[in-house]
Amino acid sequence: MNAVMESVRIPAAGVELEADVVIPKAAKGVVLFAHGSGSSRHSPRNRYVAGELQTVGLGTVLADLLTRQEDVLDAVTGSLRFDIGVLSARLVDLSDWLQNYEPTMHLGLGLFGASTGAAAALVAAAARQDTVRAVVSRGGRPDLAGKSLERVDRPTLLIVGEADHHVVELNREAAQRIPGEVRIEVVPGATHLFEEPGTLEQVARLAREWFERHLAD
After folding, report:
1. pLDDT tens digits for range 155-170
2. In sequence order, what are the residues at sequence separation of 6 or more whose Cβ sits closer than 8 angstroms to the Cβ of residue 44?
3. Sign of the Cα pseudo-torsion (26, 29, 35, 36, in order)
4. Are strands 156-161 and 132-138 parallel, antiparallel or unpaired?
Protein backbone atom coordinates (compact mmCIF):
# COMPACT_ATOMS: atom_id res chain seq x y z
CA MET A 1 0.00 0.00 0.00
CA ASN A 2 1.13 3.53 -0.78
CA ALA A 3 0.45 6.49 1.47
CA VAL A 4 0.79 8.92 -1.45
CA MET A 5 0.46 8.43 -5.21
CA GLU A 6 -0.07 11.63 -7.15
CA SER A 7 1.04 13.77 -10.07
CA VAL A 8 2.08 17.29 -9.11
CA ARG A 9 3.42 20.48 -10.67
CA ILE A 10 6.45 21.83 -8.83
CA PRO A 11 7.83 25.37 -9.18
CA ALA A 12 11.54 25.21 -9.95
CA ALA A 13 13.92 27.92 -11.19
CA GLY A 14 11.18 30.03 -12.71
CA VAL A 15 9.18 27.26 -14.40
CA GLU A 16 6.71 24.57 -13.33
CA LEU A 17 7.82 20.96 -13.71
CA GLU A 18 5.59 17.90 -13.77
CA ALA A 19 6.38 15.04 -11.40
CA ASP A 20 4.92 11.70 -10.35
CA VAL A 21 5.20 11.02 -6.62
CA VAL A 22 4.84 7.62 -4.92
CA ILE A 23 5.46 7.36 -1.18
CA PRO A 24 4.86 3.95 0.45
CA LYS A 25 3.46 3.70 3.95
CA ALA A 26 6.23 3.85 6.59
CA ALA A 27 8.68 4.98 3.89
CA LYS A 28 12.38 4.64 4.69
CA GLY A 29 13.49 7.46 2.39
CA VAL A 30 12.72 9.12 -0.93
CA VAL A 31 14.62 9.11 -4.23
CA LEU A 32 14.37 11.94 -6.74
CA PHE A 33 15.07 10.87 -10.34
CA ALA A 34 16.87 13.04 -12.88
CA HIS A 35 16.29 11.65 -16.37
CA GLY A 36 18.89 11.60 -19.10
CA SER A 37 19.24 13.38 -22.40
CA GLY A 38 16.13 13.22 -24.59
CA SER A 39 14.14 11.35 -21.95
CA SER A 40 11.39 12.25 -19.48
CA ARG A 41 9.68 11.09 -16.30
CA HIS A 42 7.96 8.45 -18.45
CA SER A 43 11.28 6.67 -19.11
CA PRO A 44 10.49 2.93 -18.84
CA ARG A 45 13.96 2.24 -17.44
CA ASN A 46 13.66 4.78 -14.64
CA ARG A 47 10.10 3.69 -13.92
CA TYR A 48 11.27 0.10 -13.58
CA VAL A 49 14.01 1.11 -11.13
CA ALA A 50 11.52 3.30 -9.22
CA GLY A 51 9.17 0.36 -8.90
CA GLU A 52 11.92 -1.80 -7.45
CA LEU A 53 12.80 0.91 -4.91
CA GLN A 54 9.17 1.13 -3.86
CA THR A 55 9.10 -2.60 -3.04
CA VAL A 56 11.55 -1.99 -0.17
CA GLY A 57 9.73 1.04 1.21
CA LEU A 58 11.52 3.84 -0.62
CA GLY A 59 9.47 6.70 -2.02
CA THR A 60 10.15 7.89 -5.56
CA VAL A 61 9.71 11.17 -7.40
CA LEU A 62 10.03 11.02 -11.19
CA ALA A 63 10.21 14.61 -12.43
CA ASP A 64 10.63 16.20 -15.81
CA LEU A 65 13.54 18.65 -15.83
CA LEU A 66 12.21 20.40 -18.94
CA THR A 67 8.76 21.86 -19.60
CA ARG A 68 6.69 20.51 -22.47
CA GLN A 69 7.58 23.54 -24.61
CA GLU A 70 11.27 23.07 -23.85
CA ASP A 71 10.99 19.39 -24.75
CA VAL A 72 9.72 20.34 -28.19
CA LEU A 73 12.60 22.78 -28.66
CA ASP A 74 15.16 20.31 -27.35
CA ALA A 75 13.93 17.59 -29.71
CA VAL A 76 15.00 19.85 -32.57
CA THR A 77 18.14 21.51 -31.18
CA GLY A 78 19.38 19.10 -28.51
CA SER A 79 20.72 22.10 -26.64
CA LEU A 80 18.89 21.95 -23.32
CA ARG A 81 19.66 18.33 -22.48
CA PHE A 82 23.34 19.22 -22.06
CA ASP A 83 22.75 22.46 -20.16
CA ILE A 84 23.84 21.11 -16.80
CA GLY A 85 23.54 24.55 -15.20
CA VAL A 86 19.82 24.72 -15.99
CA LEU A 87 19.14 21.07 -15.15
CA SER A 88 21.00 21.15 -11.83
CA ALA A 89 19.36 24.42 -10.73
CA ARG A 90 15.97 22.84 -11.27
CA LEU A 91 17.01 19.66 -9.47
CA VAL A 92 18.16 21.73 -6.48
CA ASP A 93 14.76 23.46 -6.35
CA LEU A 94 12.97 20.10 -6.62
CA SER A 95 15.09 18.83 -3.72
CA ASP A 96 14.20 21.90 -1.67
CA TRP A 97 10.51 21.40 -2.46
CA LEU A 98 10.66 17.85 -1.11
CA GLN A 99 12.05 19.18 2.16
CA ASN A 100 8.83 21.19 2.56
CA TYR A 101 6.39 18.60 1.16
CA GLU A 102 4.67 16.99 4.13
CA PRO A 103 4.90 13.31 2.98
CA THR A 104 8.69 13.59 2.38
CA MET A 105 9.92 16.37 4.67
CA HIS A 106 11.14 13.91 7.33
CA LEU A 107 12.65 11.40 4.89
CA GLY A 108 16.27 11.04 3.85
CA LEU A 109 16.76 12.17 0.25
CA GLY A 110 18.63 10.33 -2.48
CA LEU A 111 19.24 11.32 -6.10
CA PHE A 112 19.20 8.90 -9.05
CA GLY A 113 20.55 10.33 -12.30
CA ALA A 114 20.80 8.79 -15.75
CA SER A 115 23.07 10.01 -18.55
CA THR A 116 23.28 13.83 -18.35
CA GLY A 117 20.85 13.72 -15.42
CA ALA A 118 23.65 12.12 -13.40
CA ALA A 119 25.77 15.25 -13.81
CA ALA A 120 22.85 17.39 -12.64
CA ALA A 121 22.39 15.08 -9.65
CA LEU A 122 26.03 15.40 -8.65
CA VAL A 123 25.94 19.19 -8.93
CA ALA A 124 22.79 19.22 -6.81
CA ALA A 125 24.38 16.91 -4.23
CA ALA A 126 27.35 19.27 -3.97
CA ALA A 127 24.99 22.23 -3.51
CA ARG A 128 22.76 20.50 -0.94
CA GLN A 129 25.15 18.51 1.21
CA ASP A 130 22.90 19.04 4.22
CA THR A 131 19.88 17.34 2.65
CA VAL A 132 21.09 14.89 -0.04
CA ARG A 133 22.29 11.67 1.60
CA ALA A 134 23.25 9.52 -1.40
CA VAL A 135 23.59 9.55 -5.19
CA VAL A 136 23.29 6.80 -7.80
CA SER A 137 24.30 7.30 -11.44
CA ARG A 138 23.15 4.95 -14.24
CA GLY A 139 25.17 5.18 -17.44
CA GLY A 140 25.94 8.71 -16.34
CA ARG A 141 28.20 11.50 -17.49
CA PRO A 142 29.65 12.66 -14.15
CA ASP A 143 32.42 14.48 -16.01
CA LEU A 144 29.83 17.09 -17.04
CA ALA A 145 29.46 18.08 -13.37
CA GLY A 146 32.79 19.90 -13.70
CA LYS A 147 34.34 21.35 -10.53
CA SER A 148 31.27 20.38 -8.51
CA LEU A 149 32.67 16.82 -8.40
CA GLU A 150 35.28 18.02 -5.94
CA ARG A 151 32.53 19.06 -3.49
CA VAL A 152 30.51 15.83 -3.56
CA ASP A 153 30.86 14.28 -0.11
CA ARG A 154 27.72 12.13 -0.23
CA PRO A 155 28.03 8.36 -0.85
CA THR A 156 28.02 7.99 -4.64
CA LEU A 157 27.47 4.84 -6.71
CA LEU A 158 28.43 4.99 -10.39
CA ILE A 159 26.83 2.18 -12.43
CA VAL A 160 28.09 1.72 -15.98
CA GLY A 161 27.74 -0.89 -18.70
CA GLU A 162 30.81 -2.98 -19.52
CA ALA A 163 30.37 -2.38 -23.25
CA ASP A 164 29.92 1.39 -22.82
CA HIS A 165 33.70 1.78 -23.02
CA HIS A 166 34.04 5.57 -23.27
CA VAL A 167 31.58 6.18 -20.44
CA VAL A 168 33.36 3.62 -18.24
CA GLU A 169 36.57 5.63 -18.58
CA LEU A 170 34.78 8.91 -17.91
CA ASN A 171 33.29 7.45 -14.73
CA ARG A 172 36.63 6.13 -13.53
CA GLU A 173 38.22 9.53 -14.03
CA ALA A 174 35.33 11.29 -12.29
CA ALA A 175 35.46 8.88 -9.33
CA GLN A 176 39.01 9.96 -8.62
CA ARG A 177 37.82 13.55 -8.21
CA ILE A 178 34.97 12.82 -5.76
CA PRO A 179 36.19 13.26 -2.17
CA GLY A 180 33.33 11.36 -0.53
CA GLU A 181 32.63 7.62 -0.54
CA VAL A 182 32.42 6.45 -4.15
CA ARG A 183 32.03 3.06 -5.81
CA ILE A 184 31.96 2.02 -9.46
CA GLU A 185 29.91 -0.99 -10.52
CA VAL A 186 30.49 -2.27 -14.07
CA VAL A 187 27.56 -4.41 -15.26
CA PRO A 188 28.87 -7.27 -17.44
CA GLY A 189 27.68 -7.25 -21.06
CA ALA A 190 25.65 -4.06 -20.69
CA THR A 191 25.65 -1.20 -23.18
CA HIS A 192 24.70 2.42 -22.43
CA LEU A 193 20.94 1.88 -22.08
CA PHE A 194 21.13 -1.46 -20.24
CA GLU A 195 18.80 -3.07 -22.77
CA GLU A 196 20.43 -6.51 -22.58
CA PRO A 197 18.50 -9.21 -20.68
CA GLY A 198 19.02 -9.01 -16.94
CA THR A 199 21.18 -5.88 -16.98
CA LEU A 200 18.53 -3.38 -15.88
CA GLU A 201 17.59 -5.77 -13.08
CA GLN A 202 21.19 -5.54 -11.88
CA VAL A 203 21.01 -1.74 -11.96
CA ALA A 204 17.83 -1.81 -9.87
CA ARG A 205 19.35 -4.20 -7.33
CA LEU A 206 22.51 -2.12 -6.96
CA ALA A 207 20.55 1.11 -6.60
CA ARG A 208 18.12 -0.46 -4.13
CA GLU A 209 20.92 -1.77 -1.92
CA TRP A 210 22.79 1.56 -2.03
CA PHE A 211 19.79 3.66 -1.09
CA GLU A 212 18.62 1.20 1.56
CA ARG A 213 22.05 1.42 3.18
CA HIS A 214 22.34 5.19 3.10
CA LEU A 215 18.76 6.48 3.38
CA ALA A 216 17.12 4.09 5.82
CA ASP A 217 18.45 5.06 9.23
Report:
1. 999 999 999 999 999 9
2. none
3. negative
4. parallel
